[in-house]
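Chain X:
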Amino acid sequence: MKSRKLTAILAVMAMTAGLTACGSQAAAPQSAAGSDTGATEAGGVEITVTTTFAGEDTNAKNYKDAVAAWEQETGNKVSDTSATSDETFKTRVITDFETGSEPDVLFFFNGADANDFVNAGKVVSIEDIRAEFPEYASNMNDDLIAASPADGVKYAVPVNGFWEAMFVNTKVLEEAGVSMPGADYTWDQFLADCGKIKDAGYTPIAAALGNIPHYWWEFCIFNQQSPKDHLNIPESAGDAVGEQWVKGLEDIKDLYEKGFFPDNTLSATDDETFAMFTDDKAAFLLDGSWKVGGIVGACQSDPDDPSTLDAEKVGHFDVTYFPGKGDRKATDLVGGLSMGYYITQKAWEDPDRKDAAVSFVEYMTSDEVVPKFAQHTASALKNAPKTDESEFNALQVKAMNMMSGVTSLTGAVQDLFNGDCRVPTFDGMPDIVEGNVAAADAVQEGIDIYQDTLE
């Protein structure tokens, strides 16, 4: 079988949307419901909605506010079963579909993670919805709506995109005599800086390799490649792509052996290492755009009340590009529009819940609501409003400035190499970095599992 190459066209277009969103002119206001679907006529209907807008997600509060506004406007109710996104959440969603317990509306990944319920015909395509509700998602640029890899059909209406980059505790850097990394930051400079930070008595990298090694896995592999070939999946650990994956994991092992991760990185939880970062004990945190909210929340005396923000404390945090290596520039980030709202067949087959589900998605993806969620990330709106920086906190503004220098956004290859395929290198990361399992063997094991899924 020839090497499988999966393109990153959507992610590149998502970058275009993200980089132009701040400067585009706002369109004339439209109804928040988006179209004449009779939202107020479906009063009294309760729909079940599951999203990832929970926990420390930046948009958890925005989601709650939007739900309350939709409920007040329509008279409908939402039974919310949202939870923080992780592998457990993904498994729960898939299980719900298998047992007939799926929600009416689901905000979920539009990549391979959704293949099971897409293949089972459990969600309704945007085209089918438009056959009855022509204005559905009409405010979106269709070119930026991702098609399912399962069948090439578009199901999920996106709200906000994402990026992954390196957060920085500048207070720790100052104590260690290290300058804030910039757009031309290299891997060699990063290693030298980590050495200085460690010598100053701080932990260079806040990461729980035994719990959430995902981001380091992604970027260290990306550093062996370039945006044009990052979404290739190897046929074996010994082919060109496989060797790149092995070298990426070996770079993580090298960082571990140098003592740049926390002493308890193999047993600590992600929450524990995140606390090291916000408590000024660690310098670098590799994570996604959603982590902005968690950092800001850690700088508030009341995590749920933005008015309690400690401006001086949040000023100690910044965000920059992951150090570049080889053909990957530091300004080449992982990102895109990887999630969106699905309407399930379960809701579609019930006339009342169908109307309410369409109304809900249109409200949550309207020109008025999307910018509140997109903030410093990307969206698929045709007419994204101007951004008023005075409405954002200091870290959000820094993130916007960082995004203005991005040269490309590429999707996460782990979203294609998903499920059990990742167990040997994700769950097996402690054994890899300790030298108990060779990186090449772990990569090959994952590839073998992946090949089995293609049969």
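Chain Y:
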Amino acid sequence: MRILHIIKTKPDPCTKELVQPESDSAQIKLYEKPVDYDKLLDDLFSYDKVICWW
């Protein structure tokens, strides 16, 4: 299962532990500029599961 993690703010240690990079997962860090919103939109529809982290 392909998982997309969207991270809004810099993660704390607990969040870092939960968001483990896997072979079929990706992370989009909205707190790092610039954000490629076209790629974000494409990724939303291409991954099986999307998890948003505040």
